[in-house]
Amino acid sequence: MRKTLLVLASAAMLMGSSLAYAAGEDVGDAMDTIASNYKTALKTDNPQEFKKALEGMKAGAQEAQKGTPPKLEKEPADGAKMTDFRHGLDILIGQINDAEKLADAGQFEQAKAAAEKFKDTRNAYHKKYK
Fold it and tell me: Where, by residue number, does heme b bind (predicted)?
């Protein structure tokens, strides 16, 4: 009976650490989605491709908000650092929305200029949480 309990406890601990690792990987995957779409948005001269890249960035940011970056795994889900992490993604989503509005209004050059400013948000939050 004691061995069975030890095996079950060990299995539970392994599953817990695997889930924590998987959550970090999900955030990593979402960040990769943001980065690859951002690269496309900055390079393209096609307004439709630009808007599609922004949509991909927004989807990645929304997905990242659901997870926990590896650096914050030991932080409480409702703690100040996690709240700030999600706030950074909210800022990015707002910036993406602003660039989308400019692109929709036919102001492609202004939209691309707005997208260039996403780097500031990325740099500020990567310093804290990457």
Answer: 31, 126
Are 60 and 37 spatial neighbours (Cβ–Cβ below 8 Å)? yes
Asked whether residue 31 is marked as a ligand-binding residue, the answer is: yes
Distance CA 66, CA 76 (A): 14
Number of structural domains (the chain) is 1
Tell whether 21 is covered by a domain.
Answer: no
For residue 35, the enclosing domain spans 27-129
Token pair for residue 45? 């001269």
41 is a domain residue = yes
What is the tens place of the pLDDT at every residue in 86-114?
Answer: 999 999 999 999 999 999 999 999 999 99
CATH for 48: 1.20.120.10
- Which tens digit of pLDDT belongs to each residue from 49-69? 999 999 999 999 999 999 999
Name the pTM for this structure.
0.80
**Helix H segments across 69-117?**
80-104, 108-116
First to last CA, the chain: 44
What is d(CA 42, CA 121) in angstroms, rounded to the nearest whole number?
15
Q: Is 5 among the domain residues?
A: no
Assigned domain for 42 exists: yes
